[in-house]
Amino acid sequence: WAMAVRFSFKASVLINGENPGILGTLNPDGSPQTSVVWVGQDGDDLLISSAAGRRKVRNLERDPRASLTIVDYQDMEQYIEVRGTATVTEDTGRALAVALAEKYEGPGAGQEFLDRPPEEVRVVIRLTPDKIVGSAAS
Predict the structure, then answer these.
(1) Are the beta carbons of 59 and 65 closer than 8 angstroms?
(2) Phi/psi class of residue 93: alpha, beta or left (left: φ > 0; alpha: ψ in -120 to 50)?
(3) Paired strand residues for 33
(4) Of 77, 92, 125, 133, which is most buried with the most CB atoms under 10 A?
């Protein structure tokens, strides 16, 4: 039974700012794949929105190991890398997609996700940290 890995105050400031993350997943052949993503925080987990069927989503459904790096664009020496395990679930009502669009692009920006066709399924990637490193980790 492992203790939860917690975010420092500096790490939470990075996560809750307008800094995008870089999500690393593993392709079927073991090679790395990275994507720039919007990031939210739910307690000790990170939340990422994506469309079902995307390469990063398929990779995580096959192998849940992932890393996410967030750099403070106001002070590039401040960053965190979060290594952990991801789960993928449906984004009911596209709530996370809307919330992250409004965090990064402002009020009303989430409407673009609500207007997309219903067959485009949005998912929540929930990254539970095993390890947090970097200058803003402590």
Answers:
(1) no
(2) left
(3) 25
(4) 125
Tokens of 83: 């290594």
Q: Identify the sign of the CA torsion 7, 8, 11, 16.
A: positive
Q: How many residues does the chain have?
A: 138
- In single-letter form, the type of residue at position 24 comes to G
At 5, give phi and psi (nearest 5°). -85, 130
Angle, vertex CA 8, rays to CA 5 and CA 11, nearest 5? 105
Query: Tell me, what amino acid is at 5?
Result: V
> What is the reported pTM?
0.94
Phi and psi, residue 59, nearest 5°: -60, -45
Residue 1's DSSP bridge partners are none
Contact 58, 119 (CB under 8 A): no
Digit-coded pLDDT (tens) for 69-103: 999 989 999 999 999 999 999 999 999 999 999 99
Place of tokens 């970097």: 134
* Cα gap 113→96, rounded to integer Å: 10
